Here is the input.
Amino acid sequence: VQLVESGGGLAQPGGSLRLSCAASGFTFSDYDMTWARQAPGKGLEWVSSISKDGTFIAYDDSVKGRFTISRDNAVNTVYLQMNSLKPEDTAVYFCVRDWSRGSSMYRGQGTQVTVSS
Here is the structure.
């Protein structure tokens, strides 16, 4: 299992970023996928999940209405469009498979998102 995140960077408050996660080493379309984040000094926090066929989507209340998760099973990629960014969105963002398995989850190396003026 390999998950490679990209698209992070520095954004101003109110700005936008689009994260991508390229998956390989497994049948991508067989798995629900999750975005999670970890802010400095805090634990890993669930952000959003999407079902294997994209028909079921859920968001944490802190990002609802601002972030949009999507996936393209043809290219084995899951995305996170982040709009109206806030300083409290600053974190390392991870693409995760098997979120519900806790310590047995698979995740990528993460991509840093910093929201600051």
User: Anything to note?
Assistant: The chain has no helices and eleven strands. The chain has a mean pLDDT of 97.
